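Sample pair:
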Amino acid sequence: MYGKAFAPEYQGALTTLSVNSSLVDVLAEATERLREAERSGLPGEAARCGLAVAEAHRRLGRIGDADRAWKASYRAAREAGDTAAMAWALWSGGTLARQRGAFPLAWRLLGLAAELGERGGDVVVRGYSLAGLAETGRIQGDYEAVGRLHEQLLAEARRRGEARHTVWALEGIAQMHRNTGDHDRAYALFEEAAEIAERAEDRRGHAWALRGLADILSARDGDTEGALELLSRAEATCREMNLSSALAYNHKMQGNVYYRAGRYAEARALYERALEEFRAMSEPRGEALARLGLAKSRARLGRDRAETAAELDELARALERGGLRHAREMVARAQEEFGPVAEAVR
């Protein structure tokens, strides 16, 4: 039903690159091909090679370089009159904006990318852009608004036999079920995503699916060692492919697993590690989640309650400004557990 996973963002002279290519290797080859295209006066080819440069930088956490690269790709595509390439560049820019927590900009760029993709007759970039809009809404916690879009995109991906896109949609829907408490449904979807990704040789998608499965093994079943084993497998993939963001989220999840097991010192160390990684790549959502885990771990290890309450209050304000509804609800629960009111009740 599903063929081997491919990376549609690797275009032009880069179509031979694998979805599993190391990002360091992708960046090196894409940069070389981009320079060749620029020297040869081929703006269309420069736009498509520049897209791969932008995506490699983004996934490596090099925010400034990624921002410059997607904009250069867009300018080259516009010069070439290539509407589809313009759409791909906007998709990259919108994805970067979401990663940076600039959600209004992400909505604008991804919406424009979807429009241009449709106008340019590129159903793949249209689908990826709509998926980006769906993921933006999901990350913000607006499940009602984007749940139906996730299901629509999943149906389209299944119909076209696109393994990578199917895996993405399954994981997004699974995460929404997990966050609303339906662990069994979430586990089944993550399990299907892992199976499809493994058969299609989509190592990135497989690593994310393993992370989801580990989360539920820990939260639902209390299976600490089983969860850590899955996360260890996923971590190896993240390191081999230089997946900086996925690695940071993996470490954050390891912190969650240790925390649930009451192993607070180990949880603290993992949250500290993840926090450094998120800050290095300017990823505010991951940073907020790591800060939350770290604050809770420190509280469990005897930190002054007033200091914990002050940190949680500051984190809540930051999340309110950023529009991260689900993460804000998580902080609210921590405030109930560790705040001054909880102490007075005791």
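The mean pLDDT is 93.
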